[in-house]
Specification:
9-stranded parallel β-sheet, alpha/beta, TIM Barrel, 9 strands
Length: about 250
C-alpha cells in the first residue's frame, strides 16, 4: 500500500445512508484530501465503535446491507479514485463468509487489505496465511495497555501499517488526544514499526497536524460519519478538505 509520509486516512461505513451514497461519500473523501480510505463493514455487535458510528452501521444493517456489498462498494470506489481502500471489519463476518472467499473477493474488487480490531496476531493464523497468499495488507491494532512483547508481535504481523489506538475506550471525537498516543507510537517505532497510524478521537485539522508530528498517519472516523449524517456527501467533502489542512 503506497501512502505519503504524512497520511490522512478517512473512515466511513459501507451502506450508510445507503450503498450508492456511501460510495459517493467515500469518493468525495478521497477527492478532498484523504490518502487512503477505511471502509467499515456494518456489524451487529460493534464493541469498539462510538455512538455516531454505531448509529450509522445500525442504519446500514436496517437498510438491508449484506457482506457482499463490501466488494461492490470497493470496486465502484476504486473505479473512480486511485487511493488504497482498506476494509475495517470485526472478524465474525469474515469467518462466516469464509476467510479465503472473503480475501479473494476483496482482492478482485481492488481492495488493499483488512483492518481487524478484534483479533490479535496469535489468533489470526488463517488470516495471516490467506493474506500472504493474496498479498493483502493486514492491519492489527495496538493499544497503550499493550505489553512490549505484544507490540513486537503486532509490528511483526502487520503489513501496511499498525493502527495505534490513541486512547482506551470507543471511537468518537475528543477535545484533546491522550498523551498516551505519542508514547504508544514511540514504543511501536522502537519495536520496528515503519508506519504507525493513530486513530480514535481525531476530529480537527489541528489534531491531524499534532498526530502527524510524531506518527505516519492520522485516522479520522466519527467526525466524517457525523458530517455525512448531518450534511450528506457535501458535508463529507467539506470536512475532509478542512482536515487535510493538517497534513
Amino acid at each position: 500500500m503506497n501512502l505519503p509520509p504524512r497520511a490522512l486516512i478517512g473512515y466511513l461505513p459501507i451502506g450508510f445512508p445507503d450503498l450508492d451514497t456511501s460510495v459517493d461519500a467515500a469518493v468525495a473523501l478521497a477527492e478532498n484530501g484523504a490518502d487512503a480510505l477505511e471502509l467499515g463493514l456494518p456489524y451487529s455487535d460493534p464493541v469498539m465503535d462510538g455512538i455516531a458510528i454505531q448509529k450509522a452501521t445500525q442504519a446500514a444493517l436496517a437498510g438491508g446491507f449484506r457482506v457482499g456489498d463490501v466488494f461492490t462498494a470497493v470496486e465502484r470506489i476504486r473505479a473512480r479514485v486511485d487511493v488504497p481502500v482498506l476494509v475495517m471489519t470485526y472478524w465474525n463476518p469474515v469467518l462466516q463468509y469464509g476467510v479465503d472467499r472473503f480475501a479473494d473477493a476483496l482482492k478482485s474488487a481492488g481492495g488493499a487489505g483488512l483492518i481487524t480490531p478484534d483479533i490479535t496476531p496469535d489468533s489470526a493464523a488463517d488470516w495471516i496465511a490467506t493474506s500472504e497468499r493474496t498479498g493483502l495488507d493486514r492491519v492489527f491494532l495496538a493499544a497503550p495497555s499493550s505489553t512490549d512483547a505484544r507490540l513486537a508481535e503486532t509490528v511483526a504481523a502487520s503489513r501496511g501499517f499498525v493502527y495505534a489506538v490513541s486512547t482506551m475506550g470507543v471511537t468518537g471525537e475528543r477535545a484533546d488526544l491522550d498523551a498516551a498516543a505519542r508514547k504508544l507510537v514511540g514504543r511501536l517505532h522502537e519495536a520496528g514499526a515503519e508506519r504507525a497510524c493513530v486513530g480514535v478521537g481525531i476530529s480537527t485539522a489541528e489534531q491531524v497536524s499534532e498526530v502527524l508530528s510524531y506518527a505516519e498517519g492520522a485516522i479520522v472516523g466519527s467526525a466524517l460519519v457525523t458530517a455525512l449524517a448531518e450534511r450528506g456527501v457535501a458535508g463529507v467533502a467539506a470536512t475532509a478538505s478542512e482536515l487535510a489542512k493538517g497534513k
